Backbone:
């Protein structure tokens, strides 16, 4: 099958399909990677669906913090599902092709959901700031209206960012080679593949995406600086530990997510190594969504209590 078609009098060809090179061409390694990838994907679905279900059925978890966590779990499921099924299909059957439209859609949805996660993590930091620094005004600062407003804002920013980036990347010409040195359609490998002048696309995507990443991370950092100052005013050591303990899970997720994101998207293009990018991308597209439910439920008494109540109801019904 021809993956490129002539452009007529221009001595060039236009790509109609891409080939995702992925991780390995060794069939034995592909089967192993498929088994590991499928296991991680199923654990991701199970863990995040469990968090969503617990928040939905347990009245004690129907608070602003868990409202945002439930939406984060939903975004994690969607984000992983834009990448993992195609990746697993490629590993199992060796069919690494993806259509031009399919690649554009994958980039759009991945970019949208990734940006939404950035803003949701910021909203969760604001929730912790409101709870610790202004406990008496918490119900006002994190009212239902505010929560839905934060959620709507995250989706609007995510769609805006991804629409601009996808339109810019796929307005470029892709000539001769159609092999993407990655396991999914992402901005850095697509820009490397283009035969057009990518300077404008690089500048705009870097400024928009970088602005969202750095802006959200900066506000999260500011929130925790204010939280630290507020917690240090608490006289009892037990009170300080209790206040800090409510932030540990969120800080862990923020560190992993933003660390890998900044390493991938905020480096100069000259320092990009596709092999390194693939390994880092595995962290924020596959591993982190699997770990998040574990991180948020580990040593979380409210989640543990909800699990026990759910299991008690199940036994009673049985």
Residues:
């Amino acid at each position: 099958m021809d993956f490129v078609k002539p452009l007529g009098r221009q001595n060039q060809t236009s790509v109609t399909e891409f080939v995702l090179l992925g991780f390995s061409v060794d069939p034995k390694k592909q089967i192993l990677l498929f088994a590991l990838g499928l296991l991680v994907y199923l654990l991701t679905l199970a863990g995040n669906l469990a968090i969503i279900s617990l928040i939905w059925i347990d009245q004690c978890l129907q608070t602003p913090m868990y409202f945002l966590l439930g939406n984060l779990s939903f975004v994690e499921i969607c984000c992983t599902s834009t990448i993992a099924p195609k990746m697993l299909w490629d590993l199992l059957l060796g069919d690494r092709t993806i259509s031009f439209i399919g690649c554009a859609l994958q980039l759009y949805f991945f970019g949208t959901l990734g940006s939404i996660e950035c803003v949701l993590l910021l909203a969760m930091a604001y929730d912790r700031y409101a709870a610790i620094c202004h406990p008496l005004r918490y119900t006002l600062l994190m009212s239902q209206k505010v929560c839905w407003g934060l959620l709507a804002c995250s989706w609007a920013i995510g769609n805006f960012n991804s629409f601009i980036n996808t339109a810019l990347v796929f307005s470029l010409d892709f000539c001769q080679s159609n092999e993407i040195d990655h396991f999914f359609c992402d901005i850095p490998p697509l820009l490397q593949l283009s035969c057009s002048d990518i300077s404008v696309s690089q500048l705009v995507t870097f400024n928009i995406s970088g602005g969202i990443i750095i802006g959200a991370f900066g506000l999260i950092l500011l929130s925790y600086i204010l939280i630290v100052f507020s917690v240090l005013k608490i006289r009892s050591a037990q009170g300080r530990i209790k206040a800090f303990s409510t932030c540990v899970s969120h800080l862990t997720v923020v560190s992993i997510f933003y660390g890998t994101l900044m390493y991938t998207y905020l480096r100069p293009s000259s320092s990009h190594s596709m092999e390194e990018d693939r390994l880092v991308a595995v962290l924020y597209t596959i591993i982190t969504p699997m770990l998040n439910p574990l991180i948020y439920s580990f040593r979380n008494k409210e989640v543990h209590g909800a699990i026990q109540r759910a299991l008690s109801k199940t036994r009673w019904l049985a």
User: Anything to note?
Assistant: The beta strands are 4-6, 13-15, 17-20, 97-99, 179-180. The mean pLDDT is 85. The CA atoms of residues 58 and 135 lie 23 Å apart.
